[in-house]
Specification:
Oligomer: single chain
Number of helices: 11
Largest sheet: 6 strands, mixed
Structural class: alpha/beta
Mean pLDDT: 95
Order of helices and strands: EHEHEHEHEEHEHEHEHEEHEHH
Radius of gyration: 19 Å
Helix content: 25-40%
Distance between the termini: 34 Å
Low-confidence stretches: none
CATH class of the largest domain: Alpha Beta
Bound molecules: NADP nicotinamide-adenine-dinucleotide phosphate
Strand order of the largest sheet: 2-1-3-5-6-4
Strand content: 15-25%
Shape: globular
Length: 286
């Protein structure tokens, strides 16, 4: 990094206009009074390598990675943290001793949000039900494995994709299709939605939560809208429900600390700022 210029970081994706990361990192830069900037880098699919080689040169200290580059970033890195290695997807990049490093902070972000929003949520860990089998599902499954769930059931519209995830993670994950869901909910300690259902512009996740035990916790990692139909239904049913925005805020912290040298916190002020931005989001935004 140049000694004379303030550090720069940013989020790389295609498209990247929808990303909330600039709001989060700029808030922290201002809060700490640090010199530096955080930008959006619109990089087309296939052009990730020509972007990534610039990291660690001049003033560009690192980047967050969003769709569709997370897998390409993982392949392109010289070194990955154990969690990034296990997920095959990278969302945070930096250069160290000349080598490009990649981390995946979605796991830590999900766990920090759960710990903060539903203290004691791992008191019961017999069965966790995960809806969806995309990239985000992998981070949630890794997190539930790390917290010692006895069984993790992956329910997905396309069963073969759930089976591929289960083949990747092994025990204690198992694949299931929609008709299996009702029976599984009767025993579930935790239900997490990682599918697109409930997101603005998508159909709601319309499932009956009645079979869930009264002690069950429901989490939705979708954060546009802030309170999805699943979250509303869980609260109406009297269950503890964890919204997705906190995961987004917490997953940003490790990158900031690495690039700008200060350990940020997820304050009420930051939450209010990003909530206001999400509330202003048009329905078609993702
Ligand atoms: N809070 C956070 O920090 C955070 C972090 C990461 C992601 N997310 C959110 O998590 C969600 C998923 O992201 P992702 O990267 O995992 O996406 P993805 O890889 O595209 O996976 C999408 C998943 O949704 C399912 N799905 C899509 N449309 C469906 C429908 N109409 N009916 C049933 N299932 C449907 C897909 O099922 P098929 O396999 O059958 O297509 C797949 O399992 C997004 O809303 C994203 O914003 C939040």
């Amino acid at each position: 990094m140049s000694k004379n210029r303030a550090p720069r970081a940013g989020v790389v994706g295609w498209p990247v206009d929808h990303s909330r990361s600039p709001t989060i990192h700029r808030h922290w830069l201002k809060e700490f009074g640090l010199p530096g900037s955080y930008e959006r880098f619109a990089v087309r699919p296939g052009e990730f390598p020509s972007f990534a080689v610039q990291i660690g040169r001049a003033d560009l200290v690192g980047a967050n990675v969003t769709a569709p580059h997370k897998e390409a970033a993982s392949r392109f890195c010289d070194r990955r943290t154990p969690v990034a290695e296990a997920l095959g997807a990278v969302n945070t990049l930096w250069r160290q001793d000349g080598l490009l490093w990649g981390d995946n902070t979605d796991v830590a972000g999900f766990l920090a949000n759960m710990d903060e929003s539903a203290p004691g949520w791992t008191t019961r860990t017999k069965l966790g039900v995960v809806i969806g089998a995309g990239g985000a599902a992998r981070a949630i499954i890794y997190a539930l494995k790390a917290r010692g769930f006895d069984r993790i059931m992956v329910v997905n519209r396309t069963l073969s994709r759930a089976e591929a995830v289960v083949a990747h993670f092994g025990a204690p994950t198992q694949a299931a299709s929609w008709p299996d869901l009702r029976a599984a909910l009767k025993e579930a300690d935790l239900l997490v939605n990682t599918s697109l259902l409930g997101m603005a512009g998508q159909p709601p996740l319309a499932i009956d939560l009645d079979p869930l035990p009264d002690s069950a916790v429901v989490a939705d990692i979708v954060y546009v809208p802030l309170r999805t139909p699943l979250i509303e239904a869980a609260r109406a049913r009297g269950l503890r429900a964890v919204e997705g925005l906190g995961m987004l805020l917490h997953q940003a912290a490790p990158g900031f600390a690495r690039w700008f040298g200060a350990r940020p916190s997820v304050s009420p002020a930051l939450r209010a700022l990003v909530e206001a931005e999400v509330l202003g989001t048009r329905v078609e935004a993702q």
